[in-house]
Design goal:
The structure is a single chain. By secondary structure, the chain is an alpha/beta fold. Helix content is about 20%, strand content about 25%. The chain has four helices and nine strands; from the N terminus they run αββββαβαββββα. Strands 3-2-1-4-5-7-6-8-9 form a nine-stranded mixed β-sheet, with helices on both faces.
Length: about 220
């Protein structure tokens, strides 16, 4: 796990979860490679690591890459970092995540917006600023009442990766349960979106890599 991915995951937990809150949190793509979101999750949560292969930090290995062995509306949050780019049909997994979340449940997604070709075992996708809203619309088209609470592109942190970050809510009627946003804690980001605001915040058409080349 690269530095910005870990930091963004930490900000997610600090924003959306109280320290004294006991929650069921599922990590999709949980194998601990140079770190894990488990290390910054609330200490009193029930944390379940799921992956497609066995490894450190993995509690359940999936037999079917598009089915989570969990009950409907059974978990408080699903988190996934640096995994969705490796899922061939990631929109199917998005619907499966929505299925297992409670109505007030959250899905935290961190996926690369750029970066090297890294097969694990395949590398299929990169996520751009409109991806979060598109996924939320796909979820609603699939029968869920999900919304995008916020999304943004993070700047690099001593590496090559610009993270695309999105936070989804299972049921729009529960929006008042989550009033805080990660973007309230972040000063430096690109192309942010916040539920209830149609504007794109900190709009930037160029990628960070292009900006660096232009300023050489």
């Amino acid at each position: 796990m690269h530095r910005s991915a870990f930091k963004n995951g930490q900000i997610f937990f600090e924003t959306y979860f109280q320290k004294n809150e006991s929650s069921i949190i599922v990590d999709l793509g949980a194998q601990d490679i140079n770190g894990s979101l488990r290390n910054c999750a609330p200490s009193n949560c029930h944390y379940l690591g799921i992956d497609f292969v066995a490894g450190r930090g993995v509690d359940i290995v999936l037999d079917d890459p598009y089915h989570l062995p969990l009950g409907e509306a059974s978990v408080d949050a699903v988190v996934s970092s640096s995994c969705f780019e490796h899922i061939e049909f990631f929109w199917l997994m998005f619907n499966e995540v929505m299925r297992v979340l409670k109505p007030s449940g959250l899905f935290y997604l961190n996926a690369p917006s750029n970066g090297d070709y890294h097969r694990y075992p395949v590398d299929c996708w990169r996520f751009y600023p409109d991806a979060g809203e598109a996924l939320a619309r796909w979820g609603r088209k699939s029968g869920f009442d999900c919304i995008l609470l916020e999304s943004f592109t993070a700047y690099q942190d001593q590496d090559i990766w610009s993270d695309s970050v999105a936070v989804f809510l299972k049921d729009e009627k529960m929006a008042d349960c989550h009033k805080l946003r990660m973007l309230d804690r972040i000063d430096h980001y690109m192309n942010g979106r916040v539920y209830g605001n149609a504007d794109i915040l900190a709009f930037q058409s160029c990628t960070e890599d292009r900006l660096k080349i232009a300023h050489r």
